[in-house]
Amino acid sequence: MAESENLQGTNLSQGKGSMGDTDVEALIKETLAATQAERKEPPKAATEIKEEKSFKGTPLSPTPKKEAPQPQATAPKPETKAPKAKPEEPKDSYAATFKEYKSGDIVPGTVVKVDNNSLLVDIGYKAEGILAIKDLSSKDQKAGLKVGDKINVLIEKLENREGYVELSKEKADYEVSWNQAYQAYKERSVLDAKVTSAVKGGLVVDYSGIRGFIPASQVKKAQNAKLEDFVGTVIPIKVIQIDRRAGKVVLSHKLAAGEKKNHEKEKILNEIEVGQVKHGTVSSVKNFGAFVDLGGIEGLIHITELSWKRVKHPSVVVKVGQELDVFVLGVDKVNKKVALGLKELQPDPWEAATSHYKPGQIVKGKIARLTNFGAFIELGHDLEGLCHISEISNEKIAHPQDVVKPGDEVDVKILRVLPDEQKIGLSIKRVIQDREKAKLKETQAKKEEETKVTIGDMMKQKEVEKAERKAEKEEKTEESMSVQTDIEIAPAENKTEG
């Protein structure tokens, strides 16, 4: 009776005597067999067998209470774990190396072979894909795909009669284009499309195979421009309405053009730096300078930066539409302005100014312009000098125009040459003064020469006059002696006569 109560406490059996021992042994054997099958641990199984024998040889008593529940706790394990382990396959299974695809999927691939009618494409599937040349877009057919090219393709059929996966790139491109259009519509981003035709209400464009329409009110054009002028050009667009089922896409060129221009302007402003040389096109010419389009942003070349010499008007140096290289002088990212220079890319004439002109030298020049304080005179070698009003005339004048006018050619004297300050001091009056001095000196020299000749002549004349006086004196003496002789002779004659 006590044994029966102990067995009931184990929950292993409800029977009595030997019948209860048989049930316990059977349950233990089942548990050991299941454990061995799951864990495959023979040593542990042997230990369990020993415990089994020990259990069989021990009379049932209250002491085995702790051992009896152990088989009951382990018994359900084979039922829960065994089914999970059964369907598992090795991780390096050949089938596991391939991706699972279905018809309609757009997948990446690599061209592995090209022939006249088709291409073989590796898409990472158990079979290679075949792509017919006719399923390529006209752009791809013209460009020609080659082995190694990476492309996106659409799976039309997972297996054809030959065992290949049938592919289409044109349909894949079409689907990708629609996805991009939807994405652009959601993000309000800018796309580029080619204008195929102009109709009464606007423009028809092609975006990667998708046909879209731009209403005339959404076309940004110049005042005198026509819709036909856009045909064949690529323009920026924004999607403002899209319906895939109806195949309807409405676009705006006006919104995209303004946004794209601002984007390009910001991009150039972030990239441009002082000291860079940029290529651009002259967009307009004003009295104060010329604007140059740098590909999204305009920069100004001030009239003083067009040439090393003075420029009367920017149109003398540049023309609208002219392409040229310019030097970046300054960038104002806050006000979005760029200062440019043209003369910086030309040889600086002031570097060689001292080799061409030296103080005291007299050269010819042309009056370029007049100011209240003097006259600017063009010299050779793209240099210009200033003749101060005090150096124009010997007389005091109120304005340079009282003496000279623009276009006059004058001789000037170099007073000073200052290359670092880009200044050359000139004088007109000193040329006149020098010439007057030279003329006076020449006159004086002539007078001196004339004076020297007169004195010589006077000396000679004096000698001549002295000789003449001497001769006259001698002649008079002779005459007086002759008279005296005659007088002396006369009385003697008289005495003889008497």
- Any low-confidence stretches, pLDDT <50, length ≥5? 1-21, 38-92
Q: How are the strands of the largest sheet arranged?
A: 1-2-3-5-4
Distance between the termini: 250 Å
Instruction: Provide the β-strand percentage band.
Output: 25-35%
Number of DSSP helical runs: 10
Number of strands: 20
* CA-atom Rg in angstroms: 60 Å
Structure description:
The chain is of the alpha+beta class. Helices cover 36% and strands 27% of the residues. The protein is built from ten helices and 20 strands. The strands form four sheets. The chain has a five-stranded mixed β-barrel. A hairpin with a 4-residue loop joins strand 9 and strand 10. Helix 2 (17-39) packs antiparallel against helix 3. The chain is rod-shaped and about 210 Å long.
Task: For the structure shown, list the relevant keywords.
498 residues; alpha+beta; OB fold (Dihydrolipoamide Acetyltransferase, E2P); 5 domains; 5-stranded mixed β-barrel; 10 helices; disordered N terminus
Which helices and strands occur, and which strands form pairs?
Layout lengths: L1 H9 L6 H23 L2 H15 L12 H6 L2 H9 L20 E9 L3 E5 L6 E4 L5 H6 L6 E8 L7 E4 H19 L3 E9 L2 E6 L2 E6 L18 E10 L4 E5 H19 L5 E10 L2 E5 L4 E5 L20 E10 L4 E5 L11 H4 L5 E10 L2 E5 L5 E5 L20 E10 L4 E5 L1 H69 L1
Parallel strand pairs: 3-5, 13-15, 18-20
Antiparallel strand pairs: 1-2, 1-4, 2-3, 4-5, 6-7, 6-9, 7-8, 9-10, 11-12, 11-14, 12-13, 14-15, 16-17, 16-19, 17-18, 19-20
